[in-house]
Amino acid sequence: xxxxxxxxxxxxxxxxxxxxxxxxxxxxxxxxxxxxxxxxxxxxxxxxxxxxxxxxxxxxxxxxxxxxxxxxxxxxxxxxxxxxxxxxxxxxxxxxxxxxxxxxxxxxxxxxxxxxxxxxxxxxxxxxxxxxxxxxxxxxxxxxxxxxxxxxxxxxxxxxxxxxxxxxxxxxxxxxxxxxxxxxxxxxxxxxxxxxxxxxxxxxxxxxxxxxxxxxxxxxxxxxxxxxxxxxxxxxxxxxxxxxxxxxxxxxxxxxxxxxxxxxxxxxxxx
Length: 271
Known about the structure:
By secondary structure, the chain is of the alpha/beta class. It has helices spanning 12-23, 35-43, 57-71, 94-122, 143-162, 182-193, 202-210, 223-234, 246-257, 260-270; strands at 3-6, 27-32, 50-51, 76-79, 125-130, 168-175, 241-244.
């Protein structure tokens, strides 16, 4: 049976992907950063759920060793864990940007670095890196998250070249707006880490905090991502990149055809 390890399964894309894949007959090993979320996963039928914090190297190694002990292989690794830190760059303290990178970039890299030797030894494997439409284009007030996703793009593009002579495939998921707790968690990070009251961007922040989910255009349900992950798992040669949601297709297209200044004007209108 094909198996997959998924990071960041406490809610949203990770959780829904785990549930969808399990229903399709895939052996799923969902992980979460907090023990209470691991217990939640076990309570809904994922007996093999484990704690994995991508910023703690030993928890990554523990999950890999545990799966190998049970299965003798790891077919697919989905680096899904991550969060968004809103705020204009002038309002983002360097330590806050560093924290963003610790999870979204360095944590993803450490998971990837640890799983590659396993896949080299078994002679095959698939690594799915969760990027974003914001790894393709930038939006006002999303600089921290943008930078982390741009970094993931660079890591994945390079890794494909370095693994070209193997049967280990690396695929990027460029997701647009998806129903999840992502926005709620991001708004909490905005409150925690940005001095909204004294910022020149105060009005924009307050508008963002008051916005409702229904106001996000082109939003899709998390199952849209789950279906793409399923296709990657069973593709003989998965694509290096998958666009998910109409927003990604539209903005990706505009980046290809518009000049930088023209694209900036468009992006300012939707920020």
